[in-house]
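Section 5.1 Outputs to date
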Amino acid sequence: MRGKTLSRQIFSNFLIVIVLSLVSVGAFSYVQSSRALDGQVKQYMEQMIDSANYQTDSYLQAYELLSNAFSSNSDVRAFMEIKPDDSYEYYVYSEKIKEFARISVISVVTLYKQLNMIYAVGQHGRSVIYENQNLLNFDPVLVKEKYDYLMKMTPVDGKISLLNMSIREVDQGSVVTMARKVRGPSYGDANRGVVAIEIKLDELAKTWDRVSLGKKGFFFIIDDAGNYIYPRSMSERKPQDDLASHVLASGNQTFIYKYDGEERMFVSRKSGYSDWNLVASMPVDELRRPADTIRTTTISVGLITLAIALWLATRFGRSIIAPIRWLKDSMRETEKGNWQYIDESGRTDEIGGLIHSYNLMVTRLSDMIERVYEAELEQQKNALELGETKLERQRAEYQSLQLQINPHFLYNTLETINCYAIVQDSTEITEMVEAMAFMLRYSVQTNLEEITVANELNHVRNYMIVLQHRTGKEFEIDVAIPPYLLLEKMVRLTLQPLIENIFQHAFPDGVEPHHFIRINAKKENGLFQVFVEDNGIGMKPERLEELRKKLEQNRLAEPEENGSPRRGGIGLMNVHRRIQMVFGEAYGLSVDSEWGRGSCLTMTMPETTRPKMRN
């Protein structure tokens, strides 16, 4: 560290602190925001697919009710047991079934557009088909082939089955068939036939098309066998391919899969009334685009903030280093015998005290040298009388004096100003400098960010350390805040100004042993309140009323007309307004006081949700 200048050390330390803060905050913000966005998008996709699944189940449930009505209809059951060659019974039951189908469909208007046809097929090979209120007769051989497939694919326990088929080739791929087996009128164990309802996929697709998945997102349906039901563009894919296998294996879970050369997120839900799996898909790049925007913004803002912070650090470093360099250069000139004084006007800090001490040292050295010079002249006049020995003695004393007042010692002391307190073993200076350093570091953060009660109490503690060293009097503040409230949120630099205001105005004749300042806090009815009480002189009613009116104006304190601020209330009003800037107009500072008995200052803020600590 000896090779580095003080300015480089200050700049390097500032750079490390700023970069670490920006990197940690930026990285944490980016990671958390990315996770939150991914979760929101996933939740949005799940809500969309759940809504589509609910609508689909609602439609299928309506058709299931229609299928139940047909399966339990006495005419349909009787039709299943007519003789294959009995044309009269076939005609009679066909007309009854046709009329029942017409009335059932008309009674439920929502089913009309989505219904393709309803048909009943018996083991005897005869069928009744209702399509757009027309009765059609199909080739018995064709019906027999379809009937065998329906009997094979339909459960024997009377449950419905959704099949990707149609009894008419032209409708193949554009409809799904809801089928169930029907028993005869005797309600025996044997199944006598099948009742099937063909549903148009194009009408159901209007519900699925409401799923908004962006430009590159899409929606599709597969059954438990891996067959693609919707849309038609995917029906050409082979059953049980890799995509269908991933969907069936995932169940109702969300998964990432590479499809058509890009990674996509898939959300799958299984219908409650069928073996359909409704799936929504969106590209991962599109999902994470907002997170990329946040990352770019974070980096840009971080670089700008870094540049501004480094510029402020440079200015702050120069304000400290410049006067030290003046002292250094002046001392070098002093070593050469050129007495130089430094202008100390306008500086009241520690560096100003050093400059004052330096000027005082130069003045005393100059006076001392003049006296020595005058003494030397006087001694030279008497040199002939005193003799050669006495003259040498006077020269030796003069050289000894010069060695004793060598200013190089002070120059070296200023070069090691950071470790001065340790070298001098002065715990008072160390304690005061550390307290001032913490207060300065805490105070330069001027943004109205929320911090904890513990942070504010630590700032008050450092303030009391400096105050006790300045006044030479010890005074303790009673802190009665419960431990579980120390991590509650409040506004930076609001507690210390209240304490300072009390010392300035509550005890005008000085702090006596019976005086006290107490800090307390509580949470009640959704509010978090911090109380600062004292038993000082309090406020007169007219002064209290004037202060309350100013607090009601919700404005920062401004200087008086003569240009100088009135110190009695400027700190209280600014604390009140800063609380409102962070939490809203409903919160702030309130004042209660009684002349001659003390005051109570109350900061009211919203309660934060935080688990309580055990006592």
